[in-house]
Amino acid sequence: MINRFFNYISSVDWLLLAFLILFLNVNTKLKLVAIALIVIANFDFKFKLKFKENRIPLFYFLIIVLSVIQVLFHYEKWSQKFFIISFLGIIFWGISLLVVHQMKSFVERRDGVKIHNAITLFFILNIIISLFNLGQIMIETGVLNPYTYMGLGSQYYMSTGDYIQGIFFNASIVNMFANLFGCFYFLYNRQLVLALLCLIISLLTTSNVGVLILLVALIILFFNHSKLRKTVAILFLGIIVVFYARISPDNLNYFTKTLLNKKENVIKTQQQQAIQNSQLEAERENKIKEYLASKESIEIKRDSSTNKPSVNIRKELKKIEHDKMITPIKKEVAQSKLVKQTHLISMNEQLYGSTLKEFEKNKYPGKLISYFQTVEYNTSSIEHFLIGSGAGRFSSKLAFSISGYSSLDGEKRFLNKIVEDITPEFKENNLSIYAYFWSQGEEKHSVTNSPFSFVNQILGEYGVIGLGLFLCFYVWFFAKSYRALTYGKIILPIFLMMLFTDYWFEDFTTVILFELMMFIDLKKIEKPKETPIINK
Question: Measured between alpha carbons, how far is residue 474 from residues 61, 116, 175, 394, 487 in Å?
Answer without folding.
Answer: 11, 24, 24, 22, 18
